[in-house]
Amino acid sequence: MAQDGTQDGTQDGGHDGTHDGDRQGGAAGGPAADGAGSGGAGEPSVRFDEGSSAYVLEVDGSPVGRADVRLGDGVAVFTHTEVDPDRGGQGLGTVLVREALADAARRGLAVEPACAFVAAYLRRHPDAARRP
């Protein structure tokens, strides 16, 4: 599976089942957990898990992906994204990153993409990290 997230054929790469590894990040911190996304039956939902400092992607209540983030000093550093390889090709990586970036923007956080998939998403959608 390619590190650049292009293996699964989704518009933004899908980054399903790949690992970005530990990249440089910022200081730790943590917003309160809350949900994002629709989360209806069979629909993916994204929530921030403060304990693991990650946005968690769930389908039917089961975790299928995560975007690790280091928070501090008004910055969200996205360090790694991963989606269960059995869920590849469904665009779930795109959903995960879109919702995580939207939440960071709502919180007024600047985004630093240390993860290749997040960086690729932001190249295609530069407004996704804009704060209100």
Overall pLDDT confidence: 78
First-last Cα distance? 35 Å
The structure class reads alpha+beta
In CATH, the architecture is 3-Layer(aba) Sandwich
The secondary-structure element order is EEEEEHEH
Low-confidence stretches: 1-38
State the gist of this model.
The protein is built from two helices and six strands. With 132 residues, the protein is α+β, with helices and mostly antiparallel strands. Strands 1-2-3-4-5-6 form a six-stranded mixed sheet.
Give structural attributes.
single chain, 132 residues, alpha+beta, Aminopeptidase, globular, disordered N terminus
Describe this structure in words.
By secondary structure, this protein is of the alpha+beta class. It has one domain (35-127): Gcn5-related N-acetyltransferase (GNAT) (Aminopeptidase, 3-Layer(aba) Sandwich). Helix content is 18%, strand content 29%. The protein is built from two helices and six strands, in the order E-E-E-E-E-H-E-H. The protein has helices at residues 92-106, 116-124; strands spanning 35-36, 44-49, 54-59, 62-72, 75-83, 110-113. The protein has a six-stranded mixed sheet with strand order 1-2-3-4-5-6. Strand 3 and strand 4 form a beta hairpin. It is globular, with a radius of gyration of 13 Å. The chain starts with 34 loop residues before the first strand and ends in an 8-residue tail after the last helix. The model is unreliable at 1-38 (pLDDT under 50).
Topology:
Elements: E1 35-36, E2 44-49, E3 54-59, E4 62-72, E5 75-83, H1 92-106, E6 110-113, H2 116-124
Parallel strand pairs: 5-6
Antiparallel strand pairs: 1-2, 2-3, 3-4, 4-5
